[in-house]
Design brief:
By secondary structure, the protein is of the alpha/beta class. The chain has a single domain, classed as Rossmann fold (3-Layer(aba) Sandwich), CATH 3.40.50.300. The protein contains 11 helices and 5 strands. The protein has a 5-stranded parallel β-sheet, with helices on both faces. α1 packs parallel to α10 and α2 packs across α10. The longest helix is centred in the N-terminal third of the chain and has 25 residues. The radius of gyration is 21 Å and the shape is globular.
């Protein structure tokens, strides 16, 4: 059984069925995980400060999942210590008429994080190889010059890999999470939404309709992982049946990736030091 935090090995084939959605690693209870999560949230806040000051890298965090896997709550908890001025969250719904008149990556470019900032995609361009694959009739509204269902998905995998390689070559760190929830847990969460008045707004008939395509989505996701988990932008499959573990795993991976960047506050020049000393002297001489 794969470790709960295992990267999908680039260049190798995996089967999503081999990953346990209820795994919790070495943590046996929620309390111990929450303690470590608090540490991770604090570390992430510090890394963000340095990231912003250094203004060298951008960080793009992608969340993909089946409905009710906990994307929103994971973002809310893991990023709770981050300065909102340095973080942007975008949720990608069905493309607009304007967006359909462009290539499928066009709307993505407008939402990419600037250097020094963290960008979060709640769903992403991967929907073009997931929901569009499960519902290929959606290709008709994209007005493509030609559509070959035998090759279009592999074509898009290659386009996405090239796009992500371009971004990483230019300083964007891409961290891709799949929150892996079981079909039984999704059912439980759907029922909780239906039964709780404060959660009913989260549920729609479309959620239940997509549940009917569960196996198709599992196969589509497996194909995505096997073709787009690369050295530059690997996929992480995160067990999502226990939200407390999901949040901890996501926070830990983000912190680890940021730590690998060897972030550091900018070093000031001798001239800048002289300016600081001069300014200090003027301020200290004030009445």
């Amino acid at each position: 059984m794969p470790d709960p935090n295992t990267i999908v090995p680039p260049g190798k084939k995996i089967d999503l069925k081999d990953y346990d959605p209820a795994a919790t690693g070495q943590f046996e209870n929620k309390e111990s995980a929450q303690i470590k999560l608090a540490v991770g949230i604090s570390q992430l806040a510090e890394y963000q400060n340095i990231l912003y000051a250094q203004n060298k890298f951008a960080v793009l965090i992608i969340f993909q999942a089946m409905d009710a896997a906990g994307k929103d709550s994971t973002i809310k908890h893991v990023m709770s210590g981050v300065n909102p001025q340095g973080c942007q969250v975008f949720s990608f719904q069905a493309p607009s008429v304007e967006e359909l008149d462009h290539d499928y990556l066009w709307r993505i470019h407008k939402c990419l994080p600037e250097r020094g900032r963290i960008g979060i995609f709640n769903r992403s361009y991967y929907e073009e190889t997931l929901i569009v694959r499960v519902h290929p009739e959606l290709l008709k509204v994209q007005s493509l010059p030609q559509v070959d269902l035998q090759h279009i998905w592999h074509q898009r995998f290659q386009e996405i890999n090239d796009f992500e390689r371009y971004l990483t070559n230019n300083g964007t760190v891409i961290i891709k999470f799949f929150l892996h929830v079981s079909k039984a847990e999704q059912k439980k969460r759907f029922l909780e939404r239906i039964n709780a008045p404060e959660k009913q707004w989260k549920f729609s008939a479309g959620d239940l309709n997509e549940r009917a395509y569960w196996n198709d989505y599992q196969a589509a996701y497996t194909d995505v992982f096997n073709h787009t988990s690369t050295e530059a932008a690997p996929w992480y499959i995160i067990p999502a049946d226990r939200k407390w573990f999901t949040r901890l795993a996501v926070a830990d991976i983000i912190c680890s990736r940021l730590q690998q960047l060897n972030l550091a506050y900018p070093q000031i020049t001798t001239a800048q030091k002289d300016q600081l000393l001069a300014a200090k002297k003027i301020l200290e001489q004030e009445d």
